[in-house]
Automatic annotation (TrEMBL), chain A:
Naturally occurring in which organism (per UniProt): Galendromus occidentalis
Protein name: Ubiquitin carboxyl-terminal hydrolase
Keyword tags: Hydrolase, Metal-binding, Nucleus, Protease, Thiol protease, Transcription, Transcription regulation, Ubl conjugation pathway, Zinc, Zinc-finger
Membrane among keywords: no
Catalytic activity, as annotated: Thiol-dependent hydrolysis of ester, thioester, amide, peptide and isopeptide bonds formed by the C-terminal Gly of ubiquitin (a 76-residue protein attached to proteins as an intracellular targeting signal)
From TrEMBL, chain B:
Gene3D superfamilies: 1.10.246.140
Pfam family, one: EnY2
Assigned GO CC terms: DUBm complex; nuclear pore; nucleoplasm; SAGA complex; transcription export complex 2
InterPro entries linked: TF_ENY2 (IPR018783), TF_EnY2_sf (IPR038212)
Provenance organism: Galendromus occidentalis (western predatory mite)
Name of the protein in question: Transcription and mRNA export factor ENY2
Amino acid sequence: MADRPGGLCSHIAEQRDLVMESYKIVISFLISPESRENLEKRVQRFKCYTCESVGARCRLHACLQCCYVGCRLYNHSQEHHEESNHHVAISLSHGVLYCYLCAEYVHDYEFDIIAIKARQRLADFLDLNEFVRSVPLWNPKYGELELLSLQPKRMRVDSKTPIGLRGLYNLGNTCFMNCIIQCLTHTPFLREYFLSQQHKCIRSSPADCLVCEMCSIFQEFYSGKIFPHVPTRLLYLVWTHAQHLAGYEQQDAHEFFMATLNLVHKHASGTDIPYSGGCNCIIDVIFTGSLQSDVVCQSCHGVSTTIEPFWDISLDLGQQTAGDSRKPRSLDRKKLTDCLENFTRAEHLGSAAKIKCSKCNSYQESTKQLTFKKLPLVVSFHLKRFEHSKLLHKKVSTPIAFPQQLDLSPYMAKPEEQEEADPTSTSHDPSFSRPHTYSLFGVVIHQGTLQTGHYTAYIRQSPNGWFKCDDCEIKTATIEEVLNCEAYLLFYHKKYIEYAVE
Amino acid sequence: MNQELSNRIRQKLVATGEEERLKELLKTRLLSSGWRDELSAVAREYLKAKGVQHVDVEELQNVLLVEARKSIPDTVKKELLVEIRDFVMQHEGIL
């Protein structure tokens, strides 16, 4: 055993300087070569000198007291130690020191630093920083070690840990808020943002900041506590900042969701304008997408394009008219993709709504078509189940089938250059063929009527673990159960995240 | 595949630095897939059960190797295979 954890053993410490010299050489030639020349040399040296075997499974070790490389697979490194009495070696797979006298691997801070620096030079040389820097391992610093020693409780999280699940007390018709909190706390990107404490409060008092409150809600949810949380402070903040939601009446969950995004955006960025361009607040980074609206003049076919930002997509469910029921297709469940097709269909604006065309300079009938210009990291769909027209207010209970994985590429705006080019020629370009695939992670359901009802949510806690959240109660759910429910709000996150283009 | 061809591909991978790139790619994928954490949990359990004083690296390595190989996600294996195939295609001279 090493004399002290994380330090050199007495055998290596005795000849520390010598060992360090050879360590540097082995690192720069065999472990992290920093030039083409050294890479070439490595081809020759990187094998067991006795049996010539190569590859990770041989577990090669280089002797640091002479020029020898031996495998552990056939015990040649051990034989070398016995023959030569050299006892300090280095693992060529990991760059860790090994002492034959202790029969242990030995770590030392200064040696580690040499290896890390060499690795960094190799990354610069081979242009690998994309990998080396993208997932930095956390090495706790002195202050952090101190904090860790003050907090001895450890929690290991694996796929079976019910972390992040917490019931919420109903504070008097506040299920509209509870179901949205459940969905927000299980939004992967929000969770990473809040749990890594990236929020820096810019308001005069953190007690008045909805972002700070969100942050504390995330900490409550992921604290491992198993009794329900009481979201009074959040409710109070929403009441004071969004007066239309104040009071003990039933509210619309969608309205609450939008109000929350708006307030968090406002408190995080300090600006009142929703989705203001160039705002980098967490809400805009995650939820803001843009729609392209093309108005085509029916007379000259001139197109006028505008881009509008959005935070969510409200979809019509279509009419349940008598005409529909005669069609054989109405036996099938209507699909989310049908609603999206409808949403992105070119719509004739009619003769009553003539628009001045900027090309032919006259008022003409035109068509309008919406398509997605930029998709956000999280897309939320609002199925318009509550119909309010002049004549009637009613709830639409049409069942809508929605998929677990949703491909949004059919509803994307066509890239401009494609209009003139041969449509087949661009289809090979990988940037167009990359699918805009989204995965379902949250569903909000409304049970009951327009006047009175109850909101619950299904949330995805782990890759295949679904749970039903009904205020205080959390129950496991099956994916079939989720996909067959009468959804009101649907939350999808982007499945494949591209690296930021700099 | 014969040993000699396998050696030639390996040497080319090392000499071009591609091996290092694949290593880093693999590390990143295994880390982000949770493989590393899962495996270190298995190791911890084993050490706890047997007592840290009674286990040496050799033994731990033998215990973990099976589990480690088995639990590599298929997507990761596939990606690496494609990368190596592409590399061999680009260096037709190896074959």
